[in-house]
Amino acid sequence: MHRYIELVWYKAYADLRAEAARAYLGVAWWVLEPLLYMVVFYVVFGLLFQRGGDGFVSFLLCGLVVWRWFGSSVLRGAGAISNNAGLMLQVYIPKYLFPAIVLITTTIQFLIVFGLLLGYLLIVGPATSLCWLALPAVLLAQLLFISACVLVIAAIVPFVPDVKKLIQNGLTLLFFLSGIFYDISELPEAAQPYFYLNPMATIIENYRLVLLQASWPNWQALGITLAPSLSGAAIGMYLLTRYDRVYPKVVVS
Q1: Residue 136: is the preceding peptide bond cis (ω within 30°)?
Q2: Sequence-ordered strand ranges (E) for the chain
């Protein structure tokens, strides 16, 4: 097990270095890319559509930074196994390690951007509070949900490659249903429960409670996200273990 842990960290480090080397600006692009991404949405929804008001930039940034961690992890998870076909043919590696590598690389990149977001909020406000101590719990809840999605997707895509297209369209739909540039609590009460069926909507809302409203998370709502997270992770691990020896044959066929 110790050598597998070393392999995961080494491969994650190598992937991060390779990704940085492909861009002229290197690691700086990890910050510039999401920053440009956020600027586009601020121009569209903040300036053109005149949404929000005071505090809208912070509101939007919280949603976009958190969503980007989820979206990039899921997209990379879809290719976690097929992108390592060459390595699988050279040496035996438990296949659940490949989505683990994806999770580590996307989490490191997210933490860099998230750190900048916290720095921004410290400068522009609102003031920090003891509620920020709850951030690790919210981060953990999101990490568990992302892990479940990545494990299941990584296990299924090699057998049904067309699922990648469904994932891309599904992410687009979820993006607009997650309350990134609007407050779900301001929607008609009859519609709100349907939006909260999406765990990302609950997770994003809890980040905003802690960071922007100096409130403790909604522990009950956050706890509800654990059910799909834990069950999804268990299903993904089962599939990856069950078909561990089959994946090399599938990805090279």
Answers
A1: no
A2: none
Please list the pLDDT of the chain residue by residue as tens digits (253 residues): 667 777 777 777 777 677 656 655 555 666 666 677 667 666 666 666 556 667 788 888 899 899 999 999 999 999 999 888 888 888 888 999 999 999 999 999 899 889 888 988 888 877 778 999 999 999 999 999 999 999 999 999 999 988 988 998 999 999 989 998 888 988 999 999 999 999 999 999 999 999 999 999 999 999 999 999 999 999 999 999 999 999 988 887 6
Other beta carbons within 10 angstroms of residue 39's beta carbon come to 11
SS3 content of the chain, % helix, strand, coil (to 5): 75, 0, 25
Which DSSP state fits 157? T
Q: What is the pTM of this model?
A: 0.88
Radius of gyration over every alpha carbon of the chain, rounded to an integer in angstroms: 19
Residue 163: count of CB within 10 angstroms of its CB? 15
| C-alpha dihedral sign at 72, 73, 74, 79 | positive
Structural domain boundaries in the chain: 2-251
Asked if 201 contacts 221 with a C-beta cutoff of 8 angstroms, the reply is no
CA-based angle 71:251:92, to the nearest 5?
95
Which residues, including other chains, have CB under 8 Å from residue 183's CB and lie 6 or more apart? 59
